[in-house]
């Protein structure tokens, strides 16, 4: 059984949102942040992206939008 690849998004307050890699990659900006920072390399299952200026509420809404985007594809 294959493990689901996940990404952890961390808000300014330190709250962590664990989302599917496919959802994270739905955003071109987030995709660049993940790949350019090297926080999620090929073969790894967990990456982290810190949003030092984004509140937990804002990050939660972003996660909802990312999942909605992949559902509509």
Structure description:
Helices cover 42% and strands 21% of the residues. The N and C termini lie far apart (25 Å). The protein has a single domain (6-72), classed as 2-Layer Sandwich (Potassium Channel Kv1.1, Chain A). Strand 1 (6-10) and strand 2 (16-20) form a beta hairpin. It has a three-stranded mixed beta sheet with strand order 2-1-3. The chain has helices at 21-24, 28-37, 56-72, and strands at 6-10, 16-20, 46-50. The model has no long low-confidence stretch (mean pLDDT 84). The chain is globular, with a radius of gyration of 12 Å. By secondary structure, the protein is α+β, with helices and mostly antiparallel strands. It has three helices and three strands, in the order E-E-H-H-E-H.
**What's the number of helices?**
3
- Integer tally of domains: 1
Question: Strands of the biggest beta sheet: in what spatial order?
Answer: 2-1-3
Average pLDDT score: 84
- Give the termini separation: 25 Å
Radius of gyration: 12 Å
Q: For the record, what CATH class applies?
A: Alpha Beta
For the record, the CATH architecture stands as 2-Layer Sandwich
- Biggest pleated-sheet summary: 3 strands, mixed
Order of helices and strands: EEHHEH
In total, the number of strands is 3
Global morphology: globular
CATH-defined superfamily = Potassium Channel Kv1.1, Chain A
* Percent in helix: 40-55%
Beta strand %: 15-25%
Structural class: alpha+beta
User: Low-confidence stretches at least 5 residues in length (pLDDT < 50)?
Assistant: none
CATH fold description: Potassium Channel Kv1.1, Chain A
Organism: Adiantum capillus-veneris
Family: Belongs to the SKP1 family.
Keywords: Nucleus
Pathway: Protein modification; protein ubiquitination
């Amino acid at each position: 059984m294959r493990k689901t690849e996940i990404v952890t998004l961390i808000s300014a307050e330190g709250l962590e949102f664990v989302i599917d890699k496919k959802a994270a990659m739905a955003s071109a900006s987030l995709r660049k942040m993940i790949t350019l920072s090297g926080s999620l390399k090929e073969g790894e299952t967990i990456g982290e992206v810190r949003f030092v200026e984004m509140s937990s509420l804002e990050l939660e809404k972003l996660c909802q939008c990312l999942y909605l985007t992949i559902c509509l594809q």
